[in-house]
Amino acid sequence: MRRSPPDSAPPSGNRLAAFFGVFRYSRRALSLVWQTSRTLTLGLAVCTLVAGVLPAVAAWIGQLIVDAVVEAMAYHRETGAPLTFDSAWPVLQYVLAEAGVIAAIALAQRGLAAQQSLLRALLGQKVNVMILEKAGTLSLAQFEDSEFYDKLTRARREASIRPLGLVNKTFSLLQNAISLVSFGVLLVQFSPWAILILVIGALPVFVSEAKFSGDAFRLFRWRSPQTRMQMYLETVLAREDSIKEVKLFGLEPLLLERYRRIFETLYGEDRRLTIRRETWGFLLGLLGTLAFYGAYAWVVVETISGALTLGEMTMYLMVFKQGQAALSASLTSISGMYEDNLYLSNLYEYLEQPVIPEAGSLTQGARPGDGIRFEEVGFTYPGAEAPALRDISLHVAPGQSLALVGANGSGKTTLIKLLTRLYEPSSGRILLDGSDLREWDVATLRRRIGVIFQDFVRYQLKVGENLGAGDVAAFADEARWQEAAERSLADEFIRNMPGGYHTQLGRWFKGGQELSGGQWQKIALARAYMRESADILVLDEPTAAMDAAAEAAVYADFREHRRDKMTILISHRFSTVRAADQILVIDGGEVIERGDHASLMAQNGRYARLFRLQAEGYR
Ligand SMILES: Nc1ncnc2c1ncn2[C@@H]1O[C@H](COP(=O)(O)OP(=O)(O)OP(=O)(O)O)[C@@H](O)[C@H]1O
């Protein structure tokens, strides 16, 4: 497995550019949120504005209250007039107004929280759908590439919550910025220097936050392969399809130990980073506190000297306190945005994976009825050194059957992957009806091919749907399910299941039934039969798990239904291979013998030797 190297730090001259560069995803995240729900985004904006402006209004009313109280006290002291509702009413009006403002702030904050939680759900779904839709457009080769797989894992793990995180922080930044501007308007009347003191006090915390966010991200990126291994071990240790073997071989302690070790390494790194981050945050945060209390002392002295009224002092202290909180909240938002942007770069890196264009548009070949031709086809897997196939030429005409025989790893399945266009040949070409596969419209091509691979999928769906998967147009067509199941001999056992064709399969869901290996294989075969429009039937070890009677019946059915279809069969059982019109013996990716059973026996080469070896086993 290849591992992506840790991202290197940008050269110091470019640090600032690199720092601002990571904000490039902010706009895209915002537009993503906007597309998800305009109403909620607008609602967020309105609540943000309200929650941003009102704290300054509350502070200003606070000043009016204190000054009005001082004035009223002086009036009563000087005149000796008794306290009445009318004399207290001007002050009480201010108190009422402040209560109203505080209620409005609470309402705006609730509104923000509610809308954020709705948006989080919608956005999570949207991003996950985007990730899955993209997965559908990618090639098998991309899935088999470990670096690509890391990107996918990273995107899925984190990115679905990040866009909203980014937007929330942007709004919170906006809200705090609005508060700050409105505080600034009040504060500047005291002294412009006071604003400067606050800003300078908070800057160091911000710089350290930004640095540590970057470090956390690099760590996250670098450790992707380990995290993936952890996820894999979780699956092996806790999934029904592997637990049987894990238990019987007593693998739990070993795998669990490996799982723990990975955690310990990752935890050690996390711990170091967290301690450094928090220590620096605390030390630099002290500077902010120092600045705040310096300004506090200044306001107190000015009030004692009579330059400020008591009301003004109350307001300034409140503004200082809230201003400092808003400033540090803004800075935290900014560094959080930096972090979200870094994580989002993963999502977009994944979404921007190049899709290999499927340029072909042919729905009919140049020579209809010519069948399949391989012309000197060679293929090397991406990243592999040696070719898996070399110089393969073959021809299968409609109505003919071809069997591929060869040792494990000789290249048989690879040949099928090329025929089904899961991969493209590295050299030579493959023709269907006289036209190169690359020129064919992929959907048309795939409709013509019915295939079962050795590792066919066991969908945890209804039995019928497991068959219907072979032809999406007939996914829920019960008559077609039954027809296909009868041919693959699955009908009988399906009928005996509690819900017939509607029985849930697999153990993941309540009431799910498990099938035997051979029964699953009959389901897979029926799935291939569902593809009625297919005139190319590809069967990779289709009956290896079936009992002898079922296998014989399946091949009898094959011969009967063959007519003008092309059949390509891979099997290690010579009893099934011998009936094919053409047999290719493959070794190390090359064809070493070809012919029908009789001619190959007459050649007395590898095929004849293996055939006799297997036949002897039955004596
Ligand atoms: N996805 C892959 N990436 C890289 N190499 C692969 C991949 N799949 C198969 N190979 C290699 O290609 C060679 C041919 O594999 P293939 O699966 O075609 O063999 P096979 O003849 O079908 O074997 P078997 O009889 O065991 O099913 C093997 O050496 C295998 O290691």
TrEMBL record:
Report the protein name in the record. ABC transporter ATP-binding protein
This protein's record includes keyword Nucleotide-binding: yes
Record-linked InterPro entries:
AAA+_ATPase, ABC1_TM_dom, ABC1_TM_sf, ABC_transporter-like_ATP-bd, ABC_transporter-like_CS, P-loop_NTPase, Type_1_exporter
To which species is this protein native? Billgrantia kenyensis
Topology in the membrane?
Multi-pass membrane protein
Query: SUPFAM superfamilies of this UniProt entry?
Result: ABC transporter transmembrane region, P-loop containing nucleoside triphosphate hydrolases
Domain (ABC transporter) ranges: 372-613
Under SMART domains, the record lists: AAA (SM00382)
Residues forming the ABC transmembrane type-1 domain are 42-339
Classification via Gene3D superfamilies: ABC transporter type 1, transmembrane domain, P-loop containing nucleotide triphosphate hydrolases
A GO term for molecular function: ATP hydrolysis activity
Keywords (A to Z) from UniProt:
ATP-binding, Cell membrane, Membrane, Nucleotide-binding, Transmembrane, Transmembrane helix, Transport
Q: Where are the transmembrane segments?
A: 40-61, 193-212, 280-299
Locations listed in the record: Cell membrane
Q: Which GO terms describe its cellular component?
A: plasma membrane
